[in-house]
């Protein structure tokens, strides 16, 4: 019987947060999986057995019995190929991935036939960015009648305990050009270029951010029909943000193309603790040249909110609110926010719905309408009503 939820990398930085939340909802059915059984067992003990240990190397396929017993996999580790994901989908296992790489998403999106064969879903863009940025973008896009464009700002605290993989991904992103959609056309941008100020609320104020290769810029033009999507990154330290922007075109990007220097730079960032553990999002939609709506979200500990969003997604998928296919979060779910409460809800499928702001063409919805609360530290959300 398929009733297990397996979190791969479940005793890690983000994975343990996912397991903690799901273990309280489904005690005894959640497994913290990874290559080290000792680490998995040690973590399991901290949950009083609500989360069970599991030895699993996703680079090698498990046996047939494993595939018969698992209902949902939440992947918290970077994958080199899609063999494990494809095998899950073909065997009817829903697959949720907290990865942030646009290149990886493109590989998973090619597994649509496997998902249909197994009657399973793969859900991408489920963390903070991409993830909540996508969902907030859909929210503020409602009501667009003209040419829709989205501007996203992301602030990360330098004092936060970011996971090693997250730091390495950020450092790698500094070194590579990337593609965005601008006025309906594909164009190439450099990381930490074209600075622009965003407002993160009265407590955090305005910060200047710079272009960065977050994959929401790839998904949102397709899912929302936006003609332009830009995502910019800043740190809670204005000085550090300015220094990175200064040195990026003066040789930093070139140096970061060397693997050894990237590792050294990432290790330095991991060791140095300055600033706070705050994170914040600013998402603004434009209807033509006019501001349509604004949304802001903030809290503490980026890994915690990533885990919270992924756990809420897993809950909805486990309870049946996902059809077969490959989807980004904004295609299946919507946000409902009231101050410090944030909920993830199922929504009509994009194929059955009109563009944001219009009524669905049919009443067809995901298999089982449901909602799940996204519970995270000191979370605050503000979504403005339409300004036009």
UniProtKB/TrEMBL annotation:
UniProt feature, compositional bias: Low complexity: 360-369
Pfam families the UniProt entry points to: Sacchrp_dh_NADP
Domain of life: Bacteria
Region: Disordered, residue numbers: 349-369
Domain Saccharopine dehydrogenase NADP binding residue range list: 5-116
PANTHER family reported in the protein's UniProt record: CARBOXYNORSPERMIDINE SYNTHASE
Protein name per the record: Saccharopine dehydrogenase NADP binding domain-containing protein
Organism field: Paenibacillus oryzae
